[in-house]
Amino acid sequence: MTVLRLGKVAHGGVVVGRIDDKVVFVTGGLPGEVVEIEVTERGRRFDRGVVTRVVEAAPGRVEPICPVAGECGGCDWQHADARTQRELKRAVVAEQLERLAGLDWQGEVEAVEPLLGWRTRMRYAVAAGKLGLRGRRSHQVVALPEQGCAVAAPGPSPSMLRGRADEGELSVVVSDDGVSVLAGRQVVQGPTVVHQRVGGRRYRVAAGGFWQVHPRAAEVLLEAVLAGLMPQPGESALDLYCGVGLFAGGLDAAGASVFGVELDARAIAHARRNVPGARFLASSLARALPRLPERVDLVVLDPPRRGAGAEVVRHVAGLMPRAIAHVACDPASLGRDLGLFRQAGYEPVDIRALDLFPMTHHVECVAILQRP
C-alpha cells in the first residue's frame, strides 16, 4: 500500500497521482485528497490504482449510496456530491477541448434531474446464475445488492429478474409503454417496440434499439440543438447518425426539409414512421456521403463515441451549411472533431455540457458551429 496526495482529474473517471515520478491513475479518489492506494495494474508509462483508505478527504466527498459502488464498473463518482461531480466533468471537458481543439472553454456542466433512478436502459451481466454488472476494468460480475442499482430507473427488482437467464446479458428497458426485458437480443417480457414522447411527437423505437438513457435526455438535447440552429421554414437540413429520427422530428416540425442517414436499417424503418415528412437512408455514413445534397443549410451530427472523424467533417464543411450542431457523448472525440472543423473554417459559437449521466464520468455536449 502507498500513501500519496492526488492531483487533477483525468478523463475516464480517475484522478492523477504519482509514485516516484511515475503517473498512477487512481479510482475512488478526489483531487487534493491524501489517500492510501493499492496498485492494481502496472504499465510501462503509467500504473493504475484504487483507493483503499482516505487519509485526508476533499470537501466534496460523500458516502456512496450503493454498497458495491467501489467494485462495480457502472458508477465512477458516487463518492462525490453532485456539485463536485459536475466540477470534475467540467474540468475534463475544458482540458480535452483545450488540448485537442485549442479552445478555451469557460462553460459549466448543467445539472439535469434526476440524479438517481434515471437509467432507463440497463444491461446486466449474468454468470452462473449471478445477476449483476461488470466490475471496473474487469469481466467479473459484481452481484447486484438486494435494493438493485441506484441509478436504474424503477423497474423489476433483482429477485424478479433472477432466473430470466443463466448466462449472458439481461437488459431492462423502461419506456412510456412500461417495461421490456431482453435476454440477449430476445424480448422475453413486454413490448418489442416501445414509444417515447418528445416535443409533441411520439417516437417508435425497438426495445433493444438505441434511445437516450436519461428520461430527460432526448428532450434536453432536442431543445439545445433547435435553440442553437434556429431552423427556419423552407431550410434544408441533414440529420446524420439519425437513429429513429429524434432531431429530424424537431427540424421537420420547424418547417425544414430533412434528410437523415443511419446505419441501422431497423432504426430507419422506425424513423420513416416517426417523421413521415422527412427522407431517410439506411447506410453507413461513409458510403452515404456521395449521396448527400451538394449544399445544405443545417447539419446535425450525433456520431458514436469515437466521433465523426476527418472524412465526415471535411465533407460536412464542404456542404457550406450556415450552422452545424455536433452532439457528443465523449469530450475527447468532440475535441478532435472540433479541431478538424476549425481547420475547415468552422468555429464553435456555443458549447453546452449536460450532466445526462449522473454518478458516472460521462457527459454529453452540444456544440454549435458557424463560419466566422
Automatic annotation (TrEMBL):
GO terms for biological process: rRNA base methylation. Residues 1-53 form the TRAM domain. It comes from the Bacteria. The keyword Transferase applies. Belongs to the class I-like SAM-binding methyltransferase superfamily. RNA M5U methyltransferase family. PANTHER family: RNA M5U METHYLTRANSFERASE, TRNA (URACIL(54)-C(5))-METHYLTRANSFERASE. This is Class I SAM-dependent RNA methyltransferase. It comes from Arachnia propionica.
